Amino acid sequence: MTASPDYLVVLFGITAGATGAKLGSDEKELILLLWKVVDLANKKVGQLHEVLVRPDQLELTEDCKEETKIDAESLSSAPQLDQALRQFNQSVSNELNIGVGTSFCLCTDGQLHVRQILHPEASKKNVSLPECFYSFFDLRKEFKKCCPGSPDVDKLDVAAMTECLNFEKNSSASRYGACQVEDMGNIILAMISDPYNHRFSDPERVNYKFESGTCSKMELIDDNTVVRARGLPWQSSDQDIARFFKGLNIAKGGAALCLNAQGRRNGEALVRFVSEEHRDLALQRHKHHMGTRYIEVYKATGEDFLKIAGGTSNEVAQFLSKENQVIVRMRGLPFTATADEVVAFFGQHCPITGGKEGILFVTYPDGRPTGDAFVLFACEEYAQNALRKHKDLLGKRYIELFRSTAAEVQQVLNRFSSAPLIPLPTPPIIPVLPQQFVPPANIRDCVRLRGLPYAATIEDILDFLGEFSTDIRTHGVHMVLNHQGRPSGDAFIQMKSADRAFMAAQKCHKKTMKDRYVEVFQCSAEEMNFVLMGGTLNRNGLSPPPCKLPCLSPPSYTFPAPAAVIPPEAAIYQPSVLLNPRALQPSTAYYPAGTQLFMNYTAYYPRKEYSLLHQSCSTAPQVRPIVLATSLQLLILAVSLHSLARWSECRAWPTILELRKFLTSSKVTSMQPRMDLYTQMTRPGLYPKNGFVFKGPSS
Q1: Which of 274, 244, 175 is nearest to 27 (CA)?
Q2: Is the preceding omega at residue 550 within 30 degrees of 0, hence cis?
Q3: pLDDT tens digits, residue range 553-571?
Q4: Which of 162, 300, 381, 388 could lock 228 by a disulfide, CB 3.0 to 4.6 Å apart?
């Protein structure tokens, strides 16, 4: 709308909770709607209209009762939101006598009344708003254009505008809301009159719906337009995210669902808005609800968004070039599945857009299928019919179906296109320690802190250790993160001597840090590195890092180390410490300027997916997580452990020492002892020829 409207409808809403700058931030419902018509051509103001709105929860805050003089009894007989909106629409139509060529637009005191109250509440209650609520004038911004010398927009309100215009304080309308609407009408008349002669044009817009699209990794994204939403239901889609942020304008393709290491949604999403103003309004919806779940909203960066939604694949760009399509993800496809079989799977009730061209199979770099595919549907009806086939059979396999997004297509393709041909566990981030700071393996000169508060900093750790903080080696504090990059509550400290480590463990054990007691254990540097590589350390000994069988990487396979990250002098570091460094810089959040001598690289603590043996088995310090001398021992160990996982009547588990001793003994050099071992595993309790008796249930 470039031409000035004939009428302005001044609109003001009041909720059952906060008012002013916090309006709508507490997710309270609308209870009162007030409006007044302003004739711009004749410079006249109409009568004040108001209608009570009955909320679902008849609970009003004390501040609301005091300001509005409204009680729960009066609201119990009021119309609901949809009926109140019909009354508003009918009243405006009758007063304006709208005919051909007559136009009007809403005018509000700021953005909150439309973006943070009406649109979110109507979306939750499945109420369709009239078209007039999708464009409005922000009186604060218009006043700033009219009077450039006035205060900033965020400091402007009705009282500040009346003060700038030297209006007398209105005493006729004392009720909250009615006074504001009266003053807004007078402000508009002053703005369109001499000497200002302001013209209302170019109103604010509210997007009707979210538009999907692609994002290039080379695109520049403003850091002040991105938020991270956490706690989403796993089945939520980009449309659900757009519905949660209804009233705020999300950029095209600006909703990106995050996936975990297994390619499944982790309950987080990155959302990109059209401006910083909309981002700030989105942050006010922190802990608002999506169904029965509350959603956390935090600031994020453009780099975070590009990591999730950015892509460079021409195949993906061509697949997503058809806009306004509904994307469905298929998971669990047979590796031999063809496009014709997928088309036949969905049938005539949910035709795929473009037939075979609307199917994108996900493959590894060598062309092998992954069992995933993405399918396009032309409308919501076809997509819903398709989703009803969730877990239907294709061949002999059931197929999982989920609503998907363009960003998820990019993530999945980026993940598999860059994956190695051999499935490998994620290489851990290992702290890089200078040679002079790596003590011998048999010296227990380290301590482990367990149960730290998640908000604990290096200064907190130094205060906790007290007098022993002076005995910490340079770069000797190692914070351990979990698989999501958040603090795990663990830390390792390298001390200058084993005696000081022992004294620190004795005196600081179960001391309090921020209302939490912290456990302190003495350990060795090798045990520390073992845990930082993904193993677990407890009082019963060491448990090896997680590893999915039979996807053990061959002994000859090594992770390539980026030369640009590790300096040339790193060649003198011990191989047991310098393992597979990542091209990642340490987070500044864990590197306070005053404690640089006590910080090291933040370590990565992978999530435990599968453990080689039970948690209670112990290992001698000299045993590495996976040390296999020959391919024959690898084969025997794989068969042994595969059988161990299938036991149903075992009572005792062999330790790693016993297995290693047996595998390296002369008993496995012939075929018969190996067959005896396999017989004992598959038929527990029979013929313990090799000295092992496997009985009892497995863990």
Answers
A1: 244
A2: yes
A3: 333 333 444 444 444 444 3
A4: 300
